[in-house]
Amino acid sequence: MANVFEGIDESIRKFIEEQPMFFVATAPSGADGLVNVSPKGYRDCFAVLDEHTVAYLDLFGSGAETIAHLRQNGRIVLMFCSFTRNSRILRLHGIGRVLRPDESEFRRLAPHFNLAHPGLRSIILVDVRRVSDSCGYAVPYMELVDERPVLDKVHSVRPAEEWAVRVAGPNAKSIDGLPALEPDHPLPTCVPRG
Known about the structure:
Blueprint: E1 3-5, H1 10-18, E2 22-26, E3 36-40, E4 46-50, E5 53-59, H2 65-72, E6 75-81, E7 89-99, H3 104-109, E8 120-134, H4 150-156, H5 160-168
Antiparallel strand pairs: 1-8, 2-3, 2-6, 4-5, 5-8, 6-7, 7-8
């Protein structure tokens, strides 16, 4: 049975900070759309802002399902799993918004993150409505070797023309055809901290 919490307290914040990855799930409205679940890594891309607010850096990937779903209905759940001897699954249900790099709210939140990731697309800001955990007894024990640097390496050599194609092509719509990135979405650049 799940335990439900009033918000993200210090022990929950500590648990979140200890996890090397998390999962993001969203879905379009209606029964016909496809549910999306995405794994997220890089520990410097997630921040607990207060008891009911979290945010993470959204890096370019193969598509833009999360952005499309959030633009349509805002529903999101983030899941953190412990792969150590202390079994636990934590879920943060909420309403998310997409913050573009050219928005003032993005710049306000920027100091919470390492913005040196070359594929930076947006910040996902989540108003957390429900915090719960469960046992995670069936989650396997696993040892972390290291963070995988491949995404940053690939993005660091991508030319501006290719970024423009990604914004206008595979990141413009979800696989269900929902609008994702706007045509004028800023192309990635490394943004200095502070």
